[in-house]
Design a protein that fits this description.
heterodimer, A: 301 residues, alpha/beta, Glutaconate Coenzyme A-transferase, 2 domains, nine-stranded mixed beta sheet, B: 248 residues, eight-stranded mixed beta sheet, two-stranded antiparallel sheet, 16 strands, 22% helix, 24% strand, globular
């Protein structure tokens, strides 16, 4: 079973270039820290990073100097505090960071337009807010049928989208359950797609449950098998979120010296995700998911 | 605040839930007077029945046992923009006299003194939910006369009233604070309508940045029941993740 399967190192080297527009999606769930760490290790520069919720993964990439523009809708450490590298960049310009800011609906609409290859997406939104005054890419259009004014956002068509998922086959037919966020739209909007999975499975397993497939192999360029690749985020049915680390990040990211020490130890100090996991021997005991298996469905006819 | 917010929810209502106190309020309502409350999270969990207190709006416990899990495009288009959300919870660093909320920046947008997280789904919840509830501690810093940046519109923003701007929802009908409850008058300005037991009108007035008007007579909120307090402290938030030392 070879197909599109490759190492994370090769996938990033081949598909993520300096200056690219990169989507690493995953709404709390399935955030691909393993790919972000490899991007940092390969010292990519001038990336336009797009995420609804930039999260710790963006804070690390900003601190490492990979990101020149952030496209986003909510930049915080969910339930735990701030993203201090992001805040330092915006509040004091160190390092400089351009912002392209929307709301969640705006970001979802941008990816929907991108996936449908439309130039923009209309939405009933932004009346009474100052968000369009801060971002002149949020505009409006008059509906040709009703005459009403609708807000518009431009399509987002990234160079590369990285999707973390529970499982895929060697050709990249990818199945996700639990929160699915905007991964499908982001993948279809993108020129290139890297899928990172907890488990590589046979095509027959995918075909048993086709409704579960959210990204078809025909739009996938690379498949990376990386168990625990979303840690400290989570993968439903595999492992829980490492909330302790999200809480710790508040202290780490507040101090640039601590943040650099973190990157030195946990990103530059390991060659890959497998080595990162060796340094976290208690992870499996702490976070492995309980079993809540569903009964399945009858696809017969 | 969690108890006061829970009392605002009616059984069978469809609620767009935020993290923290609103989440606690919704689960308290579900455990008491509103067992059929439908909780929707912007992460895509619909009809969630979390068995543990979710630490984020994307917690895996929201998925296990939910009625539906959908993509975020469906959340915003098929639920929110479709008009299916009856109550939305909002909070923020600043709330002004018209119920406008700022979660974007303190100071100027291009050179902010403090950069806040931004809108998330709040702007569209403020626009589309049939009514919203704002939950925030009442302090002068949190309640200025005007916010620095309108992330989520209230009753009157720089462009006019909600009706003039074409917003489908009714906006913030209650602002639940740690001192009492504010409600909009006919013009949309927030007015104090209820005080918690032991709080004075002067305490409330000195906590906002505009000359706060009060209903006459001013009602006193009923205190939490012992069952409310027991549920909050011993079942819903035993680790006191969201309940402050003095809360509930």
């Amino acid at each position: 079973m070879s197909g599109k399967v490759c190492t994370m190192r090769d996938a990033i080297a081949q598909h993520v270039h300096d200056g690219d527009t990169v989507v690493i999606e995953g709404f709390t769930h399935l955030i691909c820290f393993a790919a972000a760490h490899e991007i940092i290790r390969q010292r990519r520069r001038n990336l336009t990073l797009c995420r609804l919720t930039p999260d710790l993964v963006a804070d690390q990439m900003i601190a490492a100097g990979c990101v020149s523009t952030l496209v986003f809708s909510w930049a915080g450490n969910p339930g735990a505090g701030s993203l201090h590298a992001f805040r330092r960049a915006v509040e004091s310009g160190q390092p400089p960071l351009a912002l392209d800011e929307y709301s969640h609906f705006g970001m979802v609409a941008r990816l929907s337009a991108g996936a449908a290859r439309l130039p923009f997406w209309p939405l009933k939104d932004y009346m009474g807010t100052d968000i369009p005054t801060a971002n002149d890419r949020i505009r409006s259009v008059q509906c040709p049928y009703t005459g009403e004014s609708l807000a518009t956002v431009p399509a987002l068509n990234p160079d590369v989208t990285i999707v973390h998922a529970q499982r895929a086959d060697a050709l990249g037919n990818t199945q996700v359950w639990g929160l699915v966020g905007t991964q499908k739209e982001a993948a279809f909007a993108s020129s290139r797609v890297i899928v990172v999975v907890e488990e590589l499975v046979d095509e027959a397993m995918i075909r048993q449950d086709p409704n579960r497939t959210i990204v078809p192999g025909l739009i996938v360029d690379a498949v990376v098998v990386e168990p625990w690749g979303a840690h400290p985020s989570y993968a439903q049915g595999y492992y829980d979120r490492d909330n302790d680390f999200y809480v710790d990040w508040e202290v780490i990211s507040r101090d640039p010296a601590k943040l650099n020490a973190y990157l030195d130890e946990w990103v530059f100090g390991v060659p890959d995700r497998a080595a990162y996991l060796v340094r976290l021997p208690t992870l499996r005991d702490r976070l492995t998911a309980d079993e809540r298996v569903c009964a399945g469905v009858n696809y017969g006819y | 605040m969690a108890v006061a917010a829970a009392r605002e929810l009616r059984d069978c209502e469809v609620v767009f839930v935020g993290i923290g106190l609103p989440n606690l309020a919704c689960n308290l309502a579900r455990a008491t007077h509103a067992p059929s409350l439908v909780l929707i999270y912007e992460s895509g969990a619909v009809g969630a029945t979390p068995e543990r207190l979710p630490l984020s709006i994307g917690d895996p416990a929201l998925v296990t046992g939910a009625l539906m899990v959908c993509g975020m495009a469906d959340v915003f288009q098929c639920f929110l923009q479709n008009g299916r959300i009856e109550v939305g919870f909002l909070g923020g660093a600043q709330v002004d006299r018209w119920g406008n909320i700022n979660t974007t920046v303190i100071g100027d947008y291009a050179h902010p003194k403090v950069r806040l997280p931004g809108s998330g789904g709040a702007a569209e919840i403020a626009i589309h939910a049939k009514r919203t509830l704002i939950v925030s501690r009442l302090t002068p810093r949190a309640f200025p006369a005007d916010v620095d940046f309108i992330t989520s519109p209230g009753h009157r923003s720089r462009g006019g009233t909600r009706r003039e701007l074409g917003m489908p929802g009714a906006g913030p009908l209650k602002v639940i604070t740690d001192k009492g409850i504010l409600e909009p008058d006919e013009s949309g300005e927030l007015v104090l309508t209820q005080l918690y037991p032991g709080m004075s009108l002067e305490q409330a007035r000195s906590s906002v940045g505009w000359p706060l008007r009060a209903h006459d007579p001013l009602e006193t909120c009923a205190p939490p029941t012992t069952r409310d307090i027991d549920l909050l402290r011993n079942e819903l938030d035993p680790k006191r993740l969201f309940l402050g030392a003095a809360a509930a």
